[in-house]
Amino acid sequence: MKSKLFTKLLGLFLLLLAFQAAAMEFVIVPFIVDKVLELPPGRTVHLLGNETLWSGLIALAVALTLAVWVAGRVTGRLERVIVFARRIAGGDLSARLDRTEEDVLTTPEAELNQAAERLEERFTELESRRQDLAAMLDSMQEAVVAITAEGQVRWSNAQMQHMVGTAIRVGRPLVLSVRDPELLACVKGALEQREVRTGRSSSLAPGRILEINAAPMPAGGALAVLHDVTRIEAAENTRREFIANVSHELRTPLTSIQGYAETLIEELEPGQETTREFLAIILKNATRMNRITVDLLALAKMESPDYKLALQPTRASALVQDAMESLSVVVADAGVALEFAGAPDTLVLADSYAVNQVFGNLIENALKYAKAGKQIRVGARLLESEVDFRVQDFGPGIASEHLDRIFERFYRVDKARSRESGGTGLGLAIAKHIVLAHRGRIWAESELGSGATFHFTLPLAPGARQTRTSAA
């Protein structure tokens, strides 16, 4: 660029010299010669000086005019470059320099345009990555918030905003947006100590337990991630409770078996009657342990994702009749009457074997409390889009505080009576899982002294629903 500009200026200077030489040769010199011949000798030097001065002034005027013209063109181009630079600095990366002609500034203008294009491409790529990162962070289940070195909120994802609400704003101090001491302590440690801090909060979101991880950022500030571990904690508590319940349920029969077996071994000559009595007790407890094991395996199978039902359209009345027939002997041996309370012939979607297991668990549960009433009623009734099946006993009833929990595993209203009757505490839980797998509902209704009624529903088969609609 410098060499081109120097060449053009040198050419302009040579042009001016040539112009002045031509003017001297063809205008000034002939004029001077004519005048010198006419003037007296004393006026010749004076005339030459005047003519030389005028020729210099004319050449200077021409040179200044050309210089102003050239400077104006260069200045105009430079002003366009300045405007272009200001637009780029202001964020307008689409700004470009117009190429109107080819001169010494064409090359730098082209390079500036290329630089602006590359800058726009890089910025577009960075903006696209930023949007992708923001979308990814917003889709996270974890709440994320970035804090500046001064403790102000730099950015937060949608989950954090939903958790805290409108109080969290960019540029506002975190302490004014979040009052949770655990989160603030973790962030403070990450900012001041420049190390990862962890904690746990139960007050930031009511009813939820959050695990906090705050880490310093390389460029300053900190990043806090809040992970909801409420379900994990609940599952862990359920696991611990389940293990404790299983251990408790198995320990009682195991202790009994061990005690009676040790007595038989230590007894030198046990009597035949005593031996038979002890062996009967051992067999009873072993049978109870076997039932607990079978029920646990059944419950684990139902809770597995691979558990599938063989759903088929089945008449509701047939399900009730099959259940009564399969359990009639057991009920009769207990001295209790099993009565049919009626059932519609409407088709429901059901796995007959699984529903029979539900009836079996409900009727066996009723037998534990129905001996006082000596009667159990089994029936069903048609609802809008489902059939309501029920098993009713006339025993002592269930207190209202137990109705919401009786379908939990190992939950017993009367623990002593349940163990005496050989119950495992899993029958109602199994019935609940089977009914829910059918997309039905299960619940209990009772009043103390008036017995209890256990209900569960099964959805109507598609054909039955169409028939009911057309009939209406």
Gist of the model:
The protein is 58% helix and 15% strand.
Descriptive report:
With 472 residues, the protein is α+β, with helices and mostly antiparallel strands. It has 4 domains: 2-107; 140-228, Beta-Lactamase, CATH 3.30.450; 237-303, Helix Hairpins; 312-471, 2-Layer Sandwich (Heat Shock Protein 90), CATH 3.30.565.10. Helices cover 58% and strands 15% of the residues. The protein contains 13 helices and 12 strands. It has helices at residues 2-38, 44-89, 106-138, 158-164, 174-177, 181-193, 230-266, 272-303, 316-333, 352-370, 415-420, 427-437, 462-471, and strands at 143-147, 153-156, 197-201, 210-216, 222-228, 312-315, 337-340, 347-350, 375-382, 386-393, 442-446, 452-459. It has a 5-stranded antiparallel β-sheet with strand order 2-1-5-4-3. A 5-stranded mixed β-sheet has the order 7-9-10-12-11. Strand 11 and strand 12 form a beta hairpin. Helix 1 (2-38) runs antiparallel to helix 2 (44-89). The radius of gyration is 49 Å and the shape is elongated. The two termini are 94 Å apart.
Along the chain, the helix and strand elements come as HHHEEHHHEEEHHEHEEHEEHHEEH
Distance N terminus to C terminus?
94 Å
What is the count of distinct domains?
A: 4
CATH superfamily of the largest domain: Histidine kinase-like ATPase, C-terminal domain
Class of the largest domain, according to the CATH hierarchy? Alpha Beta
Report the CATH architecture of the largest domain.
2-Layer Sandwich
Rounded to the nearest angstrom, the radius of gyration is: 49 Å
Fraction of residues in helices? 55-70%
- Main sheet properties: 5 strands, antiparallel
Strand content: 5-15%
What is the approximate shape?
A: elongated
The main sheet orders its strands as 2-1-5-4-3
Structural class: alpha+beta
The count of DSSP E runs of length 2 or more, i.e. the number of strands, is 12
- Overall pLDDT: 76
Write the CATH fold name of the largest domain: Heat Shock Protein 90
- Individual helix count: 13
Q: Are there runs of 5+ residues with pLDDT below 50, and where?
A: 466-472
